[in-house]
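Aim 2 progress update. The chain analyzed this quarter is reproduced below.
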Amino acid sequence: MQADIIKLEDSKYAFQGDLSFNTVATITKKASKLLAFAKEVTLDFEKLKHCDSAGIALIVQWKKLANYNGSQLKFVNVTPQMQNLIDLMGLSKAL
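Predicted structure tokens:
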């Protein structure tokens, strides 16, 4: 399983691959650097292939980090599978 975050524009990034237990450590390093310095970040999930509960936990962590840093973090093109998992976990309002 592979995962990556690709820069599309100044503050817009695309997630590609799997957001899962197996990829969280790799993605955490990249995303943390982006969120630490940006005031606004949009993360596009259109090319997300798979997401599990570890992936959802990671995006909750990103959202908390962005709030702590006074940044805005937006998620776009969330896949139906990912949205179902968010809803199932009761996190719709938090994200």
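The longest strand covers residues 40-51. The longest helix spans residues 53-68. These observations will guide the mutagenesis experiments scheduled for the next reporting period.
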